[in-house]
Design brief:
The protein is built from four helices and six strands, in the order ααααββββββ. By secondary structure, the protein is α+β, with helices and mostly antiparallel strands. The strands form two sheets. It has a four-stranded antiparallel beta sheet. It has a two-stranded antiparallel ribbon with strand order 5-6. β2 and β3 form a beta hairpin. The longest helix has 49 residues. It is elongated, with a radius of gyration of 25 Å.
Length: 173
């Protein structure tokens, strides 16, 4: 009985020394990476806010992209620390992204239109446009939809996929 307990204790000590340092290193990578991602996101937000050339609508979007890209790299680094083949994970993520993209075609068309609106900036927050048969001031240009406030104070949510740029700079659904 004593021999089995000593063997089990020895086995636990062997596992702790073998994997313990990997777990500690992985936790350190995760914590430091999380802090760096938050710091980089905040620095990006502050830098973009100070720049007069960057539209205020882009600031949260771009700062979140910076943060999440860093977090993805951190998670892949942590998994690599445990010996997981990261190339296969990246391939699986690509496949999942394709499947989700096909499932969300309509939503992604609104997303793509939102990105085009944010990049080309055919109209800005505060301007009055016609969209979806409604005329209103642009309150927010989001990634998926544009929020308008009509003259009678009603907020209208128009999907970006329904907005099209016309020659007279009106936006019609």
């Amino acid at each position: 009985m004593k021999k089995d307990a000593d063997a089990a204790t020895q086995h636990v000590i062997e596992l702790a020394t073998t994997y313990g340092m990997d777990v500690i290193a992985a936790l350190a990578i995760l914590i430091i990476g999380w802090m760096i991602a938050g710091w980089a996101g905040n620095k990006t937000r502050k830098a973009l806010t100070k720049s007069p050339k960057v539209d205020g609508t882009l600031v949260p979007f771009l700062s979140n992209i910076v943060r999440y890209v860093i977090l993805i790299f951190v998670v892949i680094a942590v998994l690599g620390k445990f010996g997981v083949q990261t190339a296969s994970i990246i391939a699986v993520l690509g496949t999942v992204g394709l499947a989700v993209g096909l499932a969300l075609q309509g939503t992604l068309s609104h997303f793509a239109a939102g990105v085009v609106l944010l990049i080309l900036r055919p109209f800005k927050v505060g301007e009055v446009i016609e969209a979806g048969g409604k005329i209103g001031g642009v309150e927010e240009i989001g990634l998926f939809a544009t929020n308008l406030k009509t003259a009678d104070g009603i907020f209208v949510y128009v999907p970006n996929g329904q907005l099209a740029w016309c020659g007279d700079e009106q936006f019609l659904a």
